Amino acid sequence: MKIYKVYSQCMMGFESDTEYKKSIDKATQYFNDLIRKTLKEVDIIDKDDFSDSIANFKDNIENWHKDCEVICRKYPLLIYKQGNKKIAIIDYWARTSYEYQEYDIESEQIVLEEIELLE
After folding, report:
1. 49: exposed, middle or buried (C-beta count within 10 Å: 0-12, 13-18, 19+)?
2. What are 2-43's pLDDT values in tens digits?
3. How far apart are CA 113 and CA 26, in angstroms?
4. How far from the centroid of its chain's Cα atoms is residue 84's Cα?
5. In this structure, are residues 4 and 86 in contact, taking their beta carbons and an 8 Å threshold?
6. Which of 15, 92, 111, 114 meets the CB 3.0–4.6 Å disulfide criterion with 84?
């Protein structure tokens, strides 16, 4: 039996908005809803910075993402499949300093993970 875990993960690896679904259709729907919700909440990067992010991802495919298959790289999303996970990466601007007007690019990952249950 398979179940699906859908969650949002920050750069530090902390999970939030975790849901478990029994069907792939409901899991995909929640995955897409979580992407839409995240896009509304954050200040997404512009197209030039997004293309730099894609280039950086492609450079690291050999080292970090060996068995991945890129599904979508349409602005502002990069979605790829790695093993039993489908991962959407959303890059956005985050304020790093309260004294100065300094911003840095951070990323949020939305993950749909297939889990095989043993009976």
Report:
1. middle
2. 999 999 988 788 888 899 999 999 999 999 999 888 888 887
3. 13
4. 14
5. no
6. 114
Smallest CA-to-CA distance from 4 within 82, 117, 81, 80 is with 117
Q: What totals of helices (H) and strands (E) does the chain contain, helices first?
A: 2, 7
Q: What is the pLDDT of residue 103?
A: 75
* Residue 78 CB neighbour total at 10 angstroms: 21
Query: Can you name the residues that pair with 79 across neighbouring β-strands?
Result: 72, 88
Higher pLDDT, 84 or 59: 84
The secondary structure of 27-55 as a DSSP string is HHHHHHHHHHHHHHHSEE--HHHHHHHHH
**How high is the pLDDT of residue 104?**
73
- Asked whether the beta carbons of 79 and 87 are under 8 A apart, the reply is yes
User: What is the token pair recorded at 59?
Assistant: 């450079």
Report the candidate in 66, 62, 65, 68 with the shortest Cα–Cα distance to residue 81.
68
pLDDT, tens digit, 9 for 90 and up, residues 63-83: 665 678 888 877 888 888 888
The tokens of 77 are what?
A: 């999303």
